[in-house]
Amino acid sequence: MLATQVLRFGHSPDPDDAFMFYGFARQAVSVREHRVEHVLEDIESLNRRATRGELEITAVSAHAYGHLTQTYWAMRTGASVGRGYGPVVVARREVELEALRGCTVALPGEGTTAALVFGLYAPPCRARQVAFDRILEEVREGRVDAGVLIHEGQLTYETEGVHKIADLGALWSEETGLPLPLGLDLVRADLGEELARDISHALRRSIEYAYEHEEEALTYALEYGRGLERELGRRFIRMYVNEDTLDIGKEGEAALRLLHKRGAERGFLPNGIEPRFVG
């Protein structure tokens, strides 16, 4: 490995990911002498790129990581975890989740955790993969019967004339007593454990720097908020950039292993998944 290199860090163009990256973006945090570049793509695109090992560091869905453990290690820092909340199932009318049997439901990508958890709790449906930022419109315009919202749509749907059918994070928590791991930040294993650990520590410093400069970091993050009002943006960021993000902890690790186990039992994931954490 060369003494210096570019470390490409894939993350979503969303307020919570942008907030986590703020220390890097302001060059207040570095990884040794390496240059960290951010690569902005939606989470399902990052999931697909990770299957090809393209980026040195990348955000992925916790679901997708079940297919990636031979190529990437999960950093202890950077997880998005829902504690009693998570992706929201919405429809134009108030119905029970069971009423969606046989209906067409928009999902934000088959590799997303939203798709996995929906599959664990919903009746058999016709899934339609739709870009996450178009799902609300698809539901509102009646082109699908229901949709699963991620990112800031979890907070803004009420202003769009649709109704919440279920909060998948709440269903998971009620059943398991555990938080729901939604997203992870990974580092490619071929970088080696020492550098991987340094990257995880640098990401933690970037998040800490963002909270030390919260107002400036919030302004920066809301450039990726698709019109999200400032205080609602702050609420969203605090939902998904918190103590669990600084360190996923033993409870978070247990939740990830259970999520992968449940996914394997239902045929969504391979058996025998063993995540490895660094940092």
Describe this structure in words.
- The chain is α/β, with parallel strands linked by helices.
- The chain has two domains: 6-82 and 179-278, Periplasmic binding protein-like II (D-Maltodextrin-Binding Protein, domain 2, 3-Layer(aba) Sandwich), CATH 3.40.190.10; 88-176, Periplasmic binding protein-like II (D-Maltodextrin-Binding Protein, domain 2).
- Helices cover 40% and strands 20% of the residues.
- The chain is built from 13 helices and twelve strands.
- The strands form two sheets. Strands 1, 2, 3, 4, 5, 11 and 12 form a seven-stranded mixed sheet that branches. A five-stranded mixed sheet has the order 8-7-9-6-10.
- Strand 7, helix 5 (113-121) and strand 8 form a beta-alpha-beta unit.
- Helix 5 crosses helix 8 and helix 9 packs across helix 10 (214-221).
- The longest helix has 20 residues, at 193-212.
- The chain is globular.
- The two termini are 20 Å apart.
List keywords for this structure.
single chain; 279 residues; alpha/beta; D-Maltodextrin-Binding Protein, domain 2; 13 helices; 40% helix; 20% strand; globular
Q: Which architecture name of the largest domain does CATH use? A: 3-Layer(aba) Sandwich
The major beta sheet can be summarized as: 7 strands, mixed
Number of DSSP-assigned strands: 12
Q: What is the element string, with H for helices and E for strands?
A: EHHEHEHEEEEHEHEHEHEHHHHHE
Can you identify the CATH class of the largest domain? Answer: Alpha Beta
List the helices and strands and how they pair.
Elements: E1 6-11, H1 15-20, H2 22-25, E2 35-40, H3 43-51, E3 57-61, H4 62-65, E4 72-75, E5 80-82, E6 88-91, E7 104-107, H5 113-121, E8 126-129, H6 135-140, E9 146-149, H7 153-156, E10 163-167, H8 168-176, E11 180-188, H9 193-212, H10 214-221, H11 230-240, H12 243-246, H13 249-265, E12 277-278
Parallel strand pairs: 1-2, 1-3, 4-12, 7-8, 7-9
Antiparallel strand pairs: 3-11, 4-11, 5-11, 6-9, 6-10
